[in-house]
Amino acid sequence: MMFAVAMTFIDQTIVSIAAPDIVRELELSASGMQWVINAYLLALAACFAVGGRLADLYGPRRIVVIGTLVFVIASVMCGCVPKGDVAQGWLIAFRAVQGFGAALLFPAALAVVVAVFPPERRGRALALFFGLSGALTAVGPLLGGWLTAAWTWRAVFWVNVPMAVIALILTAMAHIADRRRPGTLDLVGAGLMAAGMGLSVLGFQQSFIWGWDNPATWLCIAGGLVIIGYFVHYERGVRHPLIDLRVFRDKGFAVDSAVLFFAMLAFVPLFFFASVYAQVSLSASPNQAALFLLYVFAGFAIASQWGGRILDKTGARPALKIGGILGCVGFALWAGELTNLNMHDQWPYAAMAGAGIGFILAPASTDAVNRAIGPSYGEVTGITQTVRNYAASVGMAVFGTMLTHVTRSNITSTLEARGLSSEEAHDAAHSVSSAITGSGDADPPSGTGPGSDQLREIVGAVQTDFAEANQWVFYGMAIALGIAFLFALLHPGGTVASAKEEHKEPAPAQMG
């Protein structure tokens, strides 16, 4: 199962490293490239609950196989995107299909792992699952950088083909039991969830294009939240709901979900923004940017294992508190170092930030699953993964808007100080900020006119301007982890292993 989900974890980060090459070859807009990444995350968030429910209804083995096939077919189509006007829409659409396949695959795979281990051993087992999965996420930037430099950026999608073949073979060899539960799929609820999440994230994402004073921005955000609110109301009256909201009556589960939300505001977006920062402000190659991210994963992997042991011994609360405060301090210190433009001076803070999230991710996810009703592990896994990936989508949108706005403002001020008129400086700054997803080790600006001439002369100043803009993003991530810490203080503490032992279902019969 760890090998099966490896593709989904790798794809959360591998595209970020290839982003500059994709933008240059396909001539995507900055917002278009962000949506290539965000479409995957949004589809994950919108469909995870559906995937978890389907795993309960039809058995995890079957859903793992279907999810793997959907994912790999969409990966091939992403790698075959044609150049021209259709490129952006094509890539965004099939990235969304990839996300749907991952949303089927991951909760089913995790439900299998959860069912294998009793609650008192589940913390360490899932810490290993999430720790190795996190390590596989670290492979994404390295693999993406190597494939992009040695062959083509399209290979970052095609690499999923051999991995899917191996995953399917291992799944067949494992003779996984198909545990099924009675009920039906709540299609109306699934549609409401997808619509609510899609609209709200669209509003956040487009705010830097439409502007915060545009009614369309607030209409999307407010409309999405209203739909999500109606979804909650609707689910209470459904006999077989997509999400059994009774699980939120457990204070520990509610706190776990809140902590995961604020931690994931930073975790997945960090890969995108840190890799772009490395390539733009540090002039790093894709491979160097990938190595830069390894500092984060070093801290994350160690803390994940430590957090799992803390969970098994004393419950989730100590690990969540440690992770929240460590991550908050780590991101804040890292933000202060960004303008030094020295990769090697930043590694202690990058590792500290990664460790903070590592202490949170596995313990909060495992503790939430331990509190499952029934126990419907697929459904509860769907809830926690929905929270995590919706948060990642919102984080990408909000931090992306912040980065673009501050970058544009900084470069405009720099050019005006060099003697350009306000209009010329604004036009030049707009073109640069619209290309924030690429240009590390790229050719210098090639246009004509005063703005382009000035940009060629002050590349160093622009790199600093971009680094200063990233400081706002990283301070925002520090605030998110600080809020996660405050929620962790509300956790009831203790373990739920003994309580769940009473309700443990007998082992299911092997099927095929």
Give a written overview of the molecule:
The protein has helices spanning 2-10, 14-26, 30-58, 60-79, 87-116, 119-150, 155-158, 160-174, 187-210, 215-235, 251-280, 286-314, 316-337, 347-370, 377-417, 422-433, 450-457, 459-488, 497-502. Residues 436-449 and 498-512 have low confidence and may be disordered. With 512 residues, the chain is mostly helical. It folds into 2 domains: 2-185 and 242-407 and 465-495, Growth Hormone, Chain: A, CATH 1.20.1250.20; 186-241. The longest helix is centred in the last third of the chain and has 41 residues, at 377-417. The two termini are 17 Å apart.
Provide the descriptors you would attach to this structure in a database record:
about 500 residues; mainly alpha; Growth Hormone, Chain: A; about 80% helix; MFS_dom; membrane; MFS; transmembrane; MFS transporter
Structural class: mainly alpha
Q: Specify the CATH class of the largest domain.
A: Mainly Alpha
Helical amount: over 70%
Approximate shape:
globular
Strand content: under 5%
CATH topology (level 3) name of the largest domain: Growth Hormone, Chain: A
**Low-confidence parts, pLDDT < 50 over ≥5 residues?**
436-449, 498-512
Could you tell me the radius of gyration in angstroms? Answer: 22 Å
Reported for the largest beta sheet, the result is:
none
- H-E string: HHHHHHHHHHHHHHHHHHH
**Strand count:** 0
CATH architecture of the largest domain: Up-down Bundle
The rounded distance between the terminal residues' Cα atoms is 17 Å
- Number of H- or I-type helical stretches: 19
Whole-number mean pLDDT: 80
The total tally of domains equals: 2
